[in-house]
């Protein structure tokens, strides 16, 4: 789960899973809502991940930690194959953004 830029993958997970409640994170100070960076920063704060020199929140380490949770199956994401609902005669599930 080591990526050069893991924040996009965390954003993908966050768009499909309610990460802040699952990880029990405190809401960000901005009113715009959660971004992938906000989730990683809150997770770093909660877990105590700090950079060595400046003692800032280590968001890169936090992002890799979140991806590791997903890779280990502790954060479960289940996607149906394309056309599954039509083949089984089930109505398609609405996307959470609607």
UniProtKB/TrEMBL annotation:
Record-linked InterPro entries = GNL1-like
- Keyword GTP-binding present in the record's keywords: the answer is yes
Query: Tell me, what is one Gene Ontology molecular-function annotation carried by this entry?
Result: GTP binding
Signal peptide start-end:
none
Q: Is the keyword GTP-binding in the record?
A: yes
UniProt keyword annotations, A-Z: GTP-binding, Nucleotide-binding
From what superkingdom does this record's organism come?
A: Eukaryota
Q: What is this protein called?
A: GNL1 protein
Q: Which organism is it from?
A: Podilymbus podiceps (Pied-billed grebe)
What gene does this protein come from? Answer: Gnl1
């Amino acid at each position: 789960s080591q990526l050069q830029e893991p924040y996009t993958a965390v954003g993908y997970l966050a768009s499909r899973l309610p990460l802040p409640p699952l990880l029990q994170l405190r809401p960000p100070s901005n009113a715009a809502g959660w971004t992938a960076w906000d989730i990683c920063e809150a997770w770093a704060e909660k877990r105590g991940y700090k950079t060595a020199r400046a003692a800032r929140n280590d968001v890169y380490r936090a992002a890799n930690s979140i991806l590791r949770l997903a890779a280990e199956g502790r954060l479960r994401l289940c996607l149906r194959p394309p056309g599954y609902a039509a083949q089984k005669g089930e109505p398609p599930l609405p996307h959470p953004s609607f």
